[in-house]
Write the structure tokens for this entry.
Amino acid sequence: MSDRRPRHVRCPETLEPLFVEAERNLDSFFSELEQRPDVGEIRISGERYILARAQTFSVQLRAILEKEYGRLAAEKIVYNLGRAAGTKDAEFFMQRLGLERGPDALSAGPVHFAHVGWAFVDIFPESNPTTDEDYYLVYDHPFSFEAHSYLEEGIVAGRPVCFMNAGYSSGWCEVAFGVELVAKEISCRARGDAKCIFVMAHASRINERVVEAKERYGLE
């Protein structure tokens, strides 16, 4: 295995070898791209993918959902849409790449995330991903497609907007670790914050973990 550092993710040093291996596997997967506009099809390593304009899939979708169902319901729908995608992608890649449950399966998630244009992932050192209720992950999504779309539209949000990012990462990690997880965004560039910071924890402990992280980073 190469001793180089990961290029598609930032993570604690102890996890770097796993992410380097994940990059090798996912770089190979995404190198086999076939675009067939004559039949309306895109395939990557034989799997069908779709492209979607970021603003359409974030700002405009949210606006339509909020108008129809209200803000809270719209946020839940978007989160669950991302969560479903993360869950199914994790199941697929664990089987395709022969990944074991735990950090091995986690490592493919942020790399796939980067390849498909959702965000870059920066995992903070205090993170402690485990297969029990002590699971704890704190991370930033620099250049999140959701927050960036709001910024490009010139919209200042009153609250965090990266619900699809949060849902996808929690869905992937729940499959990877076999433990019930929830992710919440505690600061967001679309709201004017410096970073899009997320906290992921066991469902029974997410609220206390959010309080801890906000205190640590001086967030309200």
Notes: The first helix runs from residue 16 to 31. Residues 39 and 119 are 29 Å apart (CA to CA).
